[in-house]
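Marked as duplicate of an earlier ticket. Keeping the data here for the record.
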Amino acid sequence: MAEVTARDAKLIQYLNEAYGKERELETALQAHITMTTRTPYKKRLQQHLRETKDHARRVNRRIKELGGKAEAIPAVPDRAPDALGEAAAAVTTAASRALAAAKGPLHAIRGTSNAEKMLKNAKTEYFNEFEEIATYKAIETLAETVGDRETQRLARAIRREEERMASFLERQIPTLTKAVAQTEIPASERRTRGGRKRQSTSRARSTKSRSRSARSGSTARRSSSRRRSKTGSSSRGSKRS
């Protein structure tokens, strides 16, 4: 087997980081889907789970094409003996998968209501999407720098899918937050501040309107009085003549 070049070794390292994250998120997304009751949100998570599995397959294939082996988190020194390196990689991979599997039950108990669980999950997913976007942007840039167009195209395509998912979550978070308020905060408390503000604004406007009307009426009365005074003076002057 041909020796892996420094160029390809670095690409394999970065691709393995992406591969590990995709595999981790498969488990998290499956747990989140079971907790999600909002149909549009659930359907989008199911779609993204399929995308995530596809990303892992495509990244795995590219790693093999470059002469590497897909591992969840390659945290082994480059010059470690082969046997030690493989053992350490296997332990690291198993630990990563165990951690991802453990997150599902933990996410199931987060929040005080189902609405809040979905909101917290969405915030976690949003965070993860941007981590993936950064990872694929780095792969894309590295591949472009070393002239690997195939890896560059792969990273760009996956990054764009992650960006679309991040945009969806950004729109979803306000909706989920409002659902938490409606679920956990009494309607009277949700309306109080807004109602008082509207009432205060209405009263202020009414007061200003009455004040303007009063000033206008006062001005009109003074003008009328002045006109009558002038008319009376003119009449008295005519009589004297």
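See parent ticket for discussion. The chain has one domain: 6-189.
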